[in-house]
Specification:
Layout lengths: L2 H26 L10 H16 L3 H22 L5 H18 L3 H6 L4 H7 L6
Helix pairs in contact: 1-4, 2-3, 4-6
Length: 128
């Protein structure tokens, strides 16, 4: 395998990695449907779970324990602000080459939630 071929493979892996990380971050931080839960409502639910745990049968305790764990993680994530700028910059640098190589259209990127301004900075237009 030539050095040129190895370099092309490495570039493809790097582009794929940048695209995957950005799309995963978009998925993880996409607004959820329905009524938004507030910090106060989650804290009230946690209090209610603590009350219900003492009198619950084993299966119900298991479910309440899992719900408590899920709510605790959600509360911690509520305060954390996610900075996508680094991932977005890597995506912008890699997306055009990735799109060309894989035949990915502007519409496909949009369907996954990539903003038009990000696609424009990446050099991906509607004509692709």
């Amino acid at each position: 395998m030539s050095d040129e071929h190895k370099a092309a493979l490495a570039e493809g892996r790097n582009q794929g990695r940048a695209v995957r990380r950005y799309l995963e971050a978009l998925d993880a931080h996409r607004p959820k449907r329905g009524r938004k839960r507030t910090k106060e409502s989650m804290e009230r639910r946690l209090e209610r779970i603590e009350q219900d745990l003492s009198g619950a049968d084993p299966l119900k305790r298991l479910q309440l324990t899992q719900e408590r764990l899920d709510l605790t993680v959600e509360l911690e994530a509520l305060g954390a602000k996610v900075d996508l700028s680094g991932l977005e910059a890597d995506f912008v640098a890699a997306a055009a080459g990735y799109s060309d190589r894989k035949g990915i259209s502007w519409a496909a990127w949009r369907a996954l939630g990539v903003e038009p301004s990000v696609l424009k900075r990446a050099g991906i237009g509607r004509g692709r």
